Write the structure tokens for this entry.
Amino acid sequence: MPTIKILCSDSAFQLQAESLASRLNLPLLDSLENELNCGHTKVADYYLEYASNGLSLRSTIRGDHGPIRCDFTSGANTHRRKYGGGNGQAIAKAIGVSGKFTPKVLDLTAGMGGDSFVLATLGCQMLLLERNIIVHSLLDDGLQRADVAGTADSELAAIIGRIELLQADAIAYLSGLPPEPCSDIIYLDPMFPERKKSAKVKKEMQAFHGIVGADQDASELLDLALSRARYRVVVKRSGAARFLSDRAPSYSLEGKSTRFDVYARQKLPS
């Protein structure tokens, strides 16, 4: 397991840094330079750093990825929001979004929230669960910064207003609900053991494999999801991956490198 420390480079985030350090039971630093110059101190593998642009995960491994930050106000998320193809996107088709139906979606494995943000831009009401506290902290920070940015961008404000995030274990969450449908659609994008490193694997995902590990309970989670979804369960997989739990879906939608397996429960509203 990699070593992680909290770093606060901007005093404006001191309270947030102290709170996160307490929750994670990790040491809090105010200067990376001081630590790097201190020969008797073990340099961490990763730093969760609060800076002027928010919270990011930084690696100290030479040649590794740059800072990982959740950002819904610029870059890929903004481009996909404006030019992503609307309801014609594979994920929209898999979820069942249409001009007549914008479902409530429960995302059991939120990660950095990219897919849920896309669905929220299409009008879906999103409830996101993320059990890993580090990933949850990055996502929560990104949503909070987007909420602030929404004061000057009404479209972004409306999108963020459709997203709710909880730090929760999905199995415990679903098991604690009554045995009846709790959401129109349940979305599942489990993380699996990394077979090999390659240029095709995003560096962000390589980092998460080391910090988060695999979702070993994904098969159990699928069973629970199938008993709690009103219309369908959608499982995101890599294109060459086997069906989750070797359970064949009702049908699949293929993309360039990913696949959406759709497990239909009943017909969508028309």
The chain has a mean pLDDT of 87.
